[in-house]
Amino acid sequence: MHRIQHTLTITLFLVVLGNPVLSGATEFAVPNNGSPYKSLSELETGQILHLPTGVVVTQKQLMDTVSTSRVIYIGETHDNLEAHRVQMEIIRDLHARYPGKVAVGMEMFRRPAQNQLDLWHEGKLTDRQFRKLFRENWGLGIQLYRPIFDYLKAQRIPLLGLKSGESLEQRLREGGLEQEGLPDIDADDPYHRAYSMALFGGHASHSTEGFHPYHMLLLWEESMAEAVAEFLTDDRYPDWKLVVLAGGFHVQYGYGIPKRAFRRVPHAYSIVLPTVTEIPTELKDREMKFESTGIPLYSADFGWKLDYVVPPPLRIRLGVYLEDHDDGLRVVRVMPNSNAERMGLKKNDLIQKLNGIRVVDTEELTSRLQQHDFGETVRVHVMRDEREVQVEGVLQQMTEPHTE
Predict the structure, then answer these.
(1) At what angle do helices 213-232 and 166-175 cross, to 10 degrees?
(2) Which residues contact 209 (CB under 8 A, 6 or more apart)?
(3) CA dihedral 344, 350, 353, 356 (to 10 degrees)
(4) In whole angstroms, what is the distance from residue 191 CA to residue 210 CA?
(5) H/E segment holding residue 222
(6) DSSP letter, residue 192
(7) Burial level of 370, CB count in 10 A (0-12/13-18/19+)?
(8) pTM of whole model > 0.70?
(9) Helix (H/G/I), strand (E/B), else coil: 393
């Protein structure tokens, strides 16, 4: 399947944005990676630790505490299903306590998308339009958040876009941090800078003359903080709660979005950090390794120890690269010896249906293919040279590593 291609900068930040998975013994100014009394590695999976006191708490005790805050930040490793489960449980509990007074802000949507997010909240955006909106704002992976989106829609919970718009990002690239029209940016936090530079492979004295990826990180976080501050001062939400879902790096130690939002509008907030302390052997290639730096801060208010669980690998693949269009999925390339080639799919075919049912986008096609097994026959309806054509074939296992 076709995968959205990112620029070098964005590709780099896909690594940075996820909550770093802790590996080995790391010496921090606050020990145990920001947990002074007890390392989360000592806990059982699923246990929750109040980091400032070292007290293990129940989920109810966690919620009794964080629900008093105006803003609850929940970090994530983007591809960890367990982190999203925790986010879902916190949102559900908070909504039960404050029905009709909870909103959710997400890094995965840009601020200029808010009008469309409001239409979705009002039930005026189709599922296909919403999937396209997610893909345009974030990329692939909407299925990771599907339970959250379904719940927000069913309960009529507003969804806010937090991340900076592309025009602001381009303005930063062209003119640097001093460019007019950017949000107020604090580039002087020594701990945020030191940790960020360690991730970038730099160090605290790294030159900031001209554009540097660190500047983009600052813009992202200040834009998200600005969105939080605007929510807090919005007359429509005088006593509402805001749940912020963002990569763990943006909320850990509080020096990212939380501090930047507090600088604008002082308020009570809590940070919950879903944390993986050991990576399964089969997922070692996802581990972040970098030269750590000492941070004299708690990493969060609560650390929630979780397993690292990712979606299962794709079994069934057609063997095509696709581009999403409003009227179907355009075949860009057909791989040799693939299911697609055996079926007779051709370059520039416009895939519209699978087994007679319309497909919305590449992710939906991929998901529906996984419901089949090898040896089963599938039918693909395409538009070819302005006429509808149906092809079919028996699904076989593929050996090509980068095809569906």
Answers:
(1) 140
(2) none
(3) -60
(4) 22
(5) helix 213-232
(6) H
(7) middle
(8) yes
(9) strand
| Residue 384 identity | R
DSSP annotation of 98 reads S
Amino acid at site 93: D
Length of the chain: 404
User: Domains of the chain by range and CATH?
Assistant: 8-305 (3.40.50.11550), 320-394 (2.30.42.10)
One digit per residue, the tens of pLDDT, for the chain of length 404 reads 433 333 333 333 333 334 444 444 444 478 888 999 999 999 999 999 999 999 999 999 999 999 999 999 999 999 999 999 999 999 999 999 999 999 999 999 999 999 999 999 999 999 889 999 999 999 889 999 999 999 999 999 999 999 999 999 999 999 899 888 999 999 999 999 999 988 887 544 444 445 689 999 999 999 999 999 999 999 999 999 999 999 999 999 999 999 999 999 999 999 999 999 887 777 767 666 667 677 999 999 999 999 999 988 778 889 999 888 888 899 999 999 999 999 999 999 999 999 998 888 888 888 888 888 889 899 999 999 989 999 998 989 876 444 44
Complete DSSP assignment for 264-325: HS---EEEEEEE--S--GGGGGG----------S-S-SEEEE-----PPPP-----EEEEEE
* CA–CA separation, 235 and 228 (whole Å): 14
Structure tokens at 46: 């699923």
**Three-state DSSP class for residue 7:** coil
Q: In degrees rounded to 5, what are phi and psi of residue 139?
A: 120, -145
In the DSSP assignment, the letter for residue 48 is: E
